[in-house]
Amino acid sequence: MASIKFEVAPFDGQNNFGLWRIKMEALFHREGLLKALDGKYTDNIIMVEIKEMEERENSTIQLLLSNKVLRKVIDEETALRLWISLRAST
Fold first, then answer.
1. Collapsed DSSP state (helix, strand, coil) of residue 65
2. What is the superkingdom listed in this entry's lineage (predicted)?
């Protein structure tokens, strides 16, 4: 299987959050992490898997934020809370 490389510019508070959000959701979907963001889990996912998905998603979001924006949301401990905080700040 061929590998596809792509880049998502960090969200810095100045670029368009709506477009950045679409790219991030596409990335999460590709990585099988979108369920962690919307909280819609199937019954067969165990809590350990949920925690791992949420941690991977949270770290992915943090890595794609500028330092300025990351400082504002650093205390958010879950991907969902981080996502909500970012939405509210735009």
1. strand
2. Eukaryota
Nearest CA-CA partner of 50 in 33, 64, 74: 33
Two tokens at 62? 């943090």
Confirm whether pTM is higher than 0.85.
Answer: no
CB crowding 11-40: b at 16 or more within 10 Å, else e: beeeeebeebeeebeebbeeeebbbbbeee
pLDDT per position as a tens digit, 5-52: 678 889 999 989 988 888 888 888 777 777 666 666 666 677 778 788
- What is the full DSSP assignment across 6-50? ---PPB-SSS-HHHHHHHHHHHHHHTT-HHHHHT---TT--HHHH
Residue 1 has pLDDT above 60, yes or no: no
